[in-house]
Design a protein that fits this description.
Layout: H1 9-17, H2 23-28, H3 38-54, H4 68-73, H5 77-84, E1 89-94, H6 101-106, E2 110-117, H7 120-132, E3 138-142, H8 145-151, E4 158-161, H9 183-190, E5 196-201, H10 207-213, E6 217-225, E7 228-237, E8 245-251, E9 258-261, H11 262-267, E10 271-272, E11 278-282, H12 284-289, H13 292-299, E12 302-305, E13 308-313, E14 322-330, E15 340-345, H14 352-359, E16 362-373, E17 378-383
Parallel strand pairs: 1-2, 1-4, 2-3, 4-5, 6-8, 10-12, 15-16
Antiparallel strand pairs: 5-7, 6-7, 8-9, 11-13, 11-14, 12-13, 14-17, 16-17
Protein name: Methyltransferase
Domain PG-1098 ferredoxin-like: 278-321
Keywords: Methyltransferase, Transferase
């Protein structure tokens, strides 16, 4: 694929001049260049905008961006760096290269990397970009995964996959059997070529379903960035003979990681009580784990209600993976019109928006109002 046309000085200058312009209007106008369409120019502008927030290491002269869907499906720089912190060895195989963000960082810890991608144009873009970034010892293969697996004779230290979660009509898929490749069917074949496999999955996947359908899982990582759950990672390790664990991680936050033995999810017993001096709100990665009773038992906290994932204690825990608020009980009469609060509603009949409207309060400020309930009564709590 020839990228020289979009790197001509006049084209690069046009992109820079229009980097913050309305893309819809831009696409309705004619390209000032005979050999480059406005769609191609807009693709590079959109890529720069996404890269600025998602993978800023690519904001270098000469980098080419693929269509928007490929950018949206790519991992962020933050989650790719996290993956790279987990593995290293002689050789890496990425069977679903895509735009190559994960492979780029994972490859830092391997002596040789093999990238397999069925989209020729996308692989050409990755090859071009990695040359700009001075990546070496990389084999680029434009192949179907099935063809590669049938013909491969090498073994790898790690195999990485990010199965496609959309069908040919761009509809999202949430069952393992609907992903491409189908990791259930090819799992045994993958283990012929590596003892370790890392698979990235949607955060909407059901963890219990994963465990029941995928063999030899050693770890499941629940990865959030700034409290937004972004992905699940499952590690398949042929040599692992210990208990399966969940690892909860909230990147770009001060929350500590937490490791949870899977058996503890079912064996733990929660304690219940009325609200005390401190309120504990688990981060979203921890909530995704489903370890609601474990939180109570492990941190020695009392749960307010079986259906409310809020916890309380008379003492403050410094290393809790979530928000800790010192609180007092209040009532509706004490809420003054026009006051500013951050509103939290958990297991409560009104939404935050409905609460703001009912009590005529504004969003924001440094204090929290929490509307919830214990097993005994409805509660309004205020942070102090």
């Amino acid at each position: 694929m020839d990228f020289t046309t979009i790197f001509r000085p006049e084209v690069r200058q046009f992109i820079k001049e229009n980097i913050h312009k309305d893309l819809t209007k831009l696409l309705l106008s004619n390209s000032p260049f005979e050999d480059i369409s406005m769609q191609q120019i807009a693709q590079q502008i959109k890529g720069c905008r996404i890269a600025e927030k998602k993978f800023p290491f690519l904001l270098k002269e000469g980098i080419v961006f693929p269509p928007q869907l490929n950018l949206e499906q790519s991992s962020s720089q933050a989650t790719a760096i996290f993956k790279a912190s987990l593995f290293g060895g002689e050789s890496l195989l990425d069977l679903t290269c895509g735009y190559g963000i994960d492979a780029y960082y994972l490859s830092e810890n391997f002596k040789a990397t093999t990238l397999v991608e069925q989209n020729r144009e996308l692989l050409d873009i990755v090859k071009h970009n990695w040359s700009i970034l001075n990546k070496t010892h990389v084999l680029y293969l434009h192949q179907e995964i099935s063809f590669f697996l049938q013909n491969n004779t090498e073994r790898f230290s790690l195999i990485y996959l990010d199965p496609a979660r959309r069908d040919m009509h761009n509809h999202k898929k949430f069952l393992l059997k609907d992903l491409s490749p189908d990791i259930i069917n090819i799992g045994d074949e993958l283990l012929k070529f590596s003892d370790k496999i890392l698979i990235k999955l949607s955060p909407l996947m059901d963890i219990s379903m994963l465990i029941s359908q995928v063999k030899a899982i050693s770890y499941i990582y629940i990865i959030a960035v700034k409290n937004e759950v972004k992905e699940l990672l499952i590690v398949i390790d042929k040599a692992y003979d210990d208990e399966l664990s969940l690892r909860v991680c909230n990147l770009q936050s001060n929350d500590p990681d937490l490791e949870i033995p899977y058996s503890a999810l079912h064996a733990s017993v929660a304690s219940y009580g009325e609200v005390s001096s401190y309120l504990y709100i688990p981060n979203n990665a921890l909530l995704k784990s489903g370890a609601f009773n474990f939180i109570s038992e492990y941190f020695q906290l009392e749960k307010l209600h079986p259906n409310t994932q809020l916890y309380t204690s008379n003492h403050k825990i410094e290393n809790f993976p979530g928000r800790v608020l010192k609180i007092v009980s209040t009532d509706a009469k004490a809420i003054k019109k026009g006051e500013r609060f951050n509103i939290i509603a958990k297991n409560y009949p009104l939404t935050p928006e409905q609460i703001k409207k009912k009590y005529k309060i504004k969003d924001g400020g440094n204090q929290y109002l929490i509307f919830t309930q214990s097993r005994q009564r409805k509660l309004i709590l205020k942070s102090i």
